């Protein structure tokens, strides 16, 4: 089954939530530790950034480059000359306009380190002259990682060029308000970490339940929502945060992906099996099974499996005890909250050896999928994976989209051959959105990160 890259229009408008309510409420498993472009790799982080920030370029529905923050832009045929002209009406806030200084900081931050260039400035335009082709730069400027951003008065929060700004930020909740209030639209967005949310308020006043497991959504409220079963650009994978090559190789080759998949996702239908960690719909991905070769040798090691599905702990431990008899390696299953896992995976990189995260991908930001493996500041692992950097940097700086599949395949094979992670399945889940929404378009990227500012009430 392939990704359903279709658009679904919700036209129904009846609801129990008052039409005068202009707050878009979201509950999620885990909060947002900071709001900066660096958090674009996190699912909920990217969701917030899509509201608060805006990239220099974006792709329209036909796959063509467009810009909502430049007045004009142009390139030479060989991409050695690129001209950017700012729109003077665009601003970060009431006191800081988007000027050529901000544009220069953003563009320069996306240019390859070894690229030689000069800049001239005239009439609110920057003219870049490169020694070699800089076609890759246009693609990089579509990534949230390289969205224009300035510091704010709130700790760990930056201001972007999106429709919304941050009013309140904590690990448990984020409140956004629209910079310029709009009629018949959502003017406030509130994100709540479900672990600290009042469960009695889980009712049909919540617009987006799609950041938590379907099993966590109260059954009684679903009649007020439209439901769509969709395979999305997300894969469930097992990460092996094990520095010792021999141990990592052993458990990679001997772990049963089918048994783990059945334990963790037993009630889910339409399971799409993957050969590599990237989901179908991303060029270079393949359906099938990963390459494994389990020999009869044994190792006397003990590792920790960080478990977020607490009701499956006993089954998981039983499976790993059986595996231990076969390979010698012992795996202890420990339960952690999503907040604890976020801290371990994104900050300390310690306290776990195996974990099952969900790897997010988008068709227009494929390189970000591998940031958690190759980017040495953002990777999952507490050991060196810099051998991925050459292919990762080439993918980040790609000039022709036709080359994406080849580079994704190379990185997928590297992740497999170095036993860093193994795929369990592509994620298929029901998506719920209120019937009251008018003309709400759901597409391949919008499923994960709706543009709340464009939704009509």
Please explain how this structure is put together.
- The structure is a single chain.
- This protein has 457 residues and is α+β, with helices and mostly antiparallel strands.
- It folds into three domains: 8-54 and 150-230 and 430-454, Periplasmic binding protein-like II (D-Maltodextrin-Binding Protein, domain 2, 3-Layer(aba) Sandwich), CATH 3.40.190.10; 58-142, Dipeptide-binding Protein, domain 1 (Alpha-Beta Complex); 232-428, Dipeptide-binding Protein, Domain 3 (Dipeptide-binding Protein, domain 3, Roll), CATH 3.10.105.10.
- Helix content is 21%, strand content 25%.
- The chain contains ten helices and 21 strands.
- It has helices at 43-52, 100-110, 135-140, 245-254, 257-264, 313-327, 338-348, 371-374, 389-396, 404-417; strands at 8-10, 23-28, 58-59, 65-66, 70-75, 81-86, 117-122, 125-130, 150-151, 158-159, 164-169, 173-178, 188-193, 208-211, 225-240, 302-307, 330-335, 354-355, 358-360, 421-434, 440-442.
- The strands form six sheets. Strands 15, 16, 17, 18, 19 and 20 form a six-stranded mixed β-sheet that branches.
- Mean pLDDT is 86; it is low at 1-16.
Please report the total strand number as a whole number: 21
Low-confidence stretches: 1-16
Overall 3D form: globular
Strand content: 15-25%
Rg computed from alpha carbons, rounded to a whole number of angstroms? 23 Å
Total number of distinct structural domains = 3
Averaged pLDDT: 86
The CATH architecture of the largest domain comes to Roll
Task: Summarize the main sheet.
Answer: 6 strands, mixed
Structural class, please? alpha+beta
Q: Into which percent range does the helicity of residues fall? A: 10-25%
Can you tell me the CATH superfamily of the largest domain? Dipeptide-binding Protein, Domain 3
CATH topology of the largest domain: Dipeptide-binding Protein, domain 3
Q: First CA to last CA: what distance?
A: 34 Å
- Number of helix segments? 10
CATH class of the largest domain: Alpha Beta
């Amino acid at each position: 089954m392939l990704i359903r890259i279709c658009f679904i229009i919700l036209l129904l408008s009846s609801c129990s939530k008052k039409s005068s309510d202009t707050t878009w409420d979201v509950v999620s498993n885990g909060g947002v530790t900071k709001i900066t472009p660096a958090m674009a790799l996190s699912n909920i982080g990217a969701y917030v950034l899509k509201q608060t920030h805006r990239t220099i370029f974006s792709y329209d529905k036909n796959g063509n480059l467009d810009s909502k923050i430049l007045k004009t832009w142009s390139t030479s045929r060989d991409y050695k000359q690129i001209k950017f002209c700012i729109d003077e009406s665009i601003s970060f806030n009431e006191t800081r306009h988007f000027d050529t200084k901000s544009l220069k900081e953003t563009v320069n931050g996306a240019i390859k380190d070894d690229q030689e260039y000069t800049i001239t400035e005239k009439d609110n335009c920057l003219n870049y002259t490169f020694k070699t082709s800089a076609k890759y730069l246009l693609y990089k400027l579509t990534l949230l990682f390289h969205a224009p951003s300035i510091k704010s008065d709130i700790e760990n929060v930056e201001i972007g060029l999106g429709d919304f700004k941050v009013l309140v930020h904590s690990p448990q909740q984020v409140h956004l308000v629209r910079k310029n209030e709009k009629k018949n639209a959502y003017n406030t967005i509130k994100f709540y970490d479900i672990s600290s949310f009042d469960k009695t308020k889980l009712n049909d006043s919540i617009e987006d339940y799609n950041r938590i497991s379907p099993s966590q959504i109260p059954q009684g409220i679903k009649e007020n929502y439209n439901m769509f079963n969709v395979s999305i650009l997300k894969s469930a994978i097992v990460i092996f945060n094990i520095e010792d090559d021999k141990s990592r190789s052993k458990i990679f080759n001997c772990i049963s992906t089918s048994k783990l998949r059945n334990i963790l996702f037993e009630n889910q239908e339409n399971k799409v099996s993957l050969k590599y960690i990237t989901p179908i719909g991303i060029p270079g991905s393949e359906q099938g099974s990963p390459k494994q070769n389990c020999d009869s040798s044994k190792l006397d090691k003990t590792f920790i499996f960080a478990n977020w599905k607490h009701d499956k702990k006993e089954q998981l431990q039983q499976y790993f005890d059986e595996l231990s008899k076969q390979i010698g390696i012992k795996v202890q299953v420990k339960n952690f909250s999503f907040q604890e896992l976020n801290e371990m995976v994104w900050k300390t990189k310690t306290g776990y050896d195996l974990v099952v995260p969900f790897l997010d991908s988008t068709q227009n930001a494929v390189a970000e999928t591998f940031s958690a493996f190759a980017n040495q500041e953002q990777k999952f692992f507490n050991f060196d994976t810099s051998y991925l950097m050459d292919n990762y940097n080439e993918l980040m700086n790609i000039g022709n989209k036709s080359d994406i599949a080849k580079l994704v395949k190379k990185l997928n094979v590297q992740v497999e051959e170095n036993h860093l992670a193994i795929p369990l399945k592509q994620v298929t889940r029901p998506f719920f959105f209120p019937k009251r929404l008018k003309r709400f378009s759901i597409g391949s990227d919008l499923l994960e990160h709706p543009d709340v500012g464009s939704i009509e009430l």
